[in-house]
Amino acid sequence: MNKDTLKEFTQKIFDDMAGAMSAGLCYIGIKMGLFKIMAYKGPLTQIQITNDSKLQPRYVEEWLKAMVCSGYLHYDPLACTYCLPDEHAYLLASEGTDHFAGGMFYMVPSSLSVAPAVAKAFKTGGGVSFQDYPEELVDAIDLINRGNYEQRFASYWLKFIPGIIEKLEKGACVLDVGCGVGRVPLTLARAFPNSQFMGIDSHSHSIHQAIESCKQQGLTSRVEFSEKPLNQLDANGKFDLITVCDCLHDFTDPVNMLHEMKKCLKPDGVLFIIEPKVADNLEDNCNSIATMLYGFSIFHCMTQSLAEGGPGLGTCMGPMKTEKLVRDAGYSHFEKLNIKSKVNLFYLAKL
Ligand SMILES: C[S@@+](CC[C@H](N)C(=O)[O-])C[C@H]1O[C@@H](n2cnc3c(N)ncnc32)[C@H](O)[C@@H]1O
Prior knowledge:
This protein is an alpha/beta fold and 351 residues long. The protein has two domains: 91 residues, Arc Repressor Mutant, subunit A (Orthogonal Bundle), CATH 1.10.10.10; 243 residues, 3-Layer(aba) Sandwich (Rossmann fold), CATH 3.40.50. The protein has a seven-stranded mixed sheet with strand order 6-5-4-7-8-10-9, sandwiched between helices. Strands 1-3-2 form a three-stranded antiparallel sheet. It is 49% helix and 15% strand. The radius of gyration is 22 Å and the shape is globular. Bound molecules: S-adenosylmethionine. The site of S-adenosylmethionine has 18 residues, from α8.
């Protein structure tokens, strides 16, 4: 045994445990608004933070100390003050922007809450159905994706689909499959007031949230949400654009779903797919983003598909598998778009 390797690996174990606990502590910081209270204010005393947060003093005290140890906060021992550096606030107290990183921490408690059931499924097979996760998982998915959808979808990503912006400006029909809480159709509807949008999702709680947001934003005349499956939409040849965002890998019958989408596209319509960014080869995925994504996969994406008898493609499906699904569904054109992103891959398919 190599003593240096043992020492290094022991350190890694402590680092990983600290990372896991930091993720939980960040969840608290975001959920309870502590990062927002501290953002761009410079050094603050514990009393100031407690008063501003209106939270229990002993909890705030312990959280502040933990966050100093983890390096998220800076501490001045002479002045007894805590400071959230501006660069940390930029990532943690910026909900709704495309640089907000806090949504990932939100995934941790809700996905790990099913860890015992997932462990059992290693022996028994099956998994955990989407509806058996805490509802907060839906908030987590939305917090992760919302900033990018609102800040980049209409203004940047769509530029990579030839001719689509012109069509949407004139008036087009768009379907978002697996729309979750409806962020994509609602965002695009605000950007393109002459177009019609539809979002479908099999998860009731998500669709109810989407319908509520649609009403609040006054978009009900141009945006419709439905729990109906694709094959009951009665929408053959209707759509200019179908979007499938962060959910192709979740589907229990992905090729059939893609095939149904093909039927719903106009002859010159396009399918736009967004998937998590991973490489095809495992050896090229040995980094922290893929580690996190494999965690999301085991504790959610793969497992919820296996629960329904699906293939359990998992979060880290990668480009080759994605292309195979699209080709198997009968599309003649598939291309990976050259859109820059740290976490997503983008694909275009045509009939
Ligand atoms: C990871 S979430 C993504 C939600 C949203 N598209 C986003 O990017 O934030 C995956 C979504 O796919 C939905 N879904 C899974 N299977 C589905 C199916 N067969 N039909 C419609 N929606 C489905 C789930 O209910 C869930 O809302």
